[in-house]
Amino acid sequence: MTIVNVLLYTEPMRRKSNATLAARIEEVSLAARLFRALSDPQRLRLLSLISRASPEICVCDLNNGVSLVQPTVSHHLRVLKDAGLVTCERRATWMYYRLADGARQKIRRALTTLFSRKAHA
User: Fold this and answer.
1) Residue 65 lies inside a defined structural domain of this protein
2) Regions of the chain short of the pLDDT cut 50
3) pTM (2 d.p.)
4) Is residue 82 classed as helix, strand or coil in its secondary structure?
5) What is the rounded distance in angstroms from the CA atom of residue 101 to the CA atom of residue 99?
6) How far apart are CA 101 and CA 8, in angstroms?
7) Number of domains in the chain
8) Could you tell me if residue 26 is inside a domain?
């Protein structure tokens, strides 16, 4: 049973319109994708380093901040970028990463989706 099925199954059994159900499925699917990106301890460490940078951090500093080889760091950064949690900009040979606008709100919204007792419209 997928996380989407589990979350939808545990809600109180009540009649929902197809549009409401489709919106809820999409909301839970987005939360699942975000949690998948956050599920790796190394990605959490990288996200923490990026979130504390002022206002951005060079990938060379990220490589020094974790005990991983550069291709692995690049892979984890791509996963975080694909999840909409970080953004990057190339300057000469280096990439500079920063926390994406709304990343904290996105994580809060995903947690609210997971733990909310209220029915979502």
Assistant:
1) yes
2) 13, 119-121
3) 0.75
4) helix
5) 7
6) 29
7) 1
8) yes
Alpha helices in 1-121, H assignment, sequence order: 3-10, 18-38, 41-52, 59-65, 70-82, 103-115
Q: Which domain holds residue 47?
A: 3-115
Q: What is the CATH number of the domain that holds 78?
A: 1.10.10.10
The closest alpha carbon to 38, from 50, 23, 26, belongs to 50
27-33, long-range: CB < 8 A, 24+ apart: 27/113, 27/120, 28/3, 28/4, 28/113, 29/4, 30/110, 30/113, 31/109, 31/110, 31/113, 31/114, 32/2, 32/3, 32/4, 33/83
pLDDT in tens, 16-25: 577 777 877 8
In a domain, 120, yes or no: no
How many Cβ atoms sit within 10 Å of the Cβ of residue 117?
Answer: 6
Residue 121 forms part of a structural domain: no
For residues 53 and 21, what is the distance between their CA atoms, to the nearest angstrom? 40
Q: Is the Cβ–Cβ distance between 88 and 12 less than 8 Å?
A: no
